[in-house]
């Protein structure tokens, strides 16, 4: 129950944090275990571009922090996680509210830990993809993130 309350407070915090708030995006759900996050990006005067469609910068910025945060919350203090690279592929102009659902499975978390434990280097890059879709599920943009993960072996138990 405490984790659920903490996740709701993070959701509220994201939505009030000025840097995220100005993207136009809103966090609608954070799972208590941080393995799923959902956002929506309303099509409003604040997110509309010159030609009346959703501004690409808003699309990207609304999706930016989540894979990094999800890994940070799930891997623990002995890991350092940074966004390293991103690209966005626009597929259809957005003229309605768009949604994104970020997920990280237990298998992916285990794979990250295993790769770092077996690796000769102390860092890896992981690639994640999320789609911005409308209410009907039509993909308007795909964002691909590269996340850098490293470990300080002296902190590991």
From TrEMBL:
Pfam families: DUF4442 (PF14539). InterPro entries: DUF4442, HotDog_dom_sf. SUPFAM superfamilies: Thioesterase/thiol ester dehydrase-isomerase. It comes from the Archaea. This is DUF4442 domain-containing protein. It comes from Natrialba taiwanensis DSM 12281.
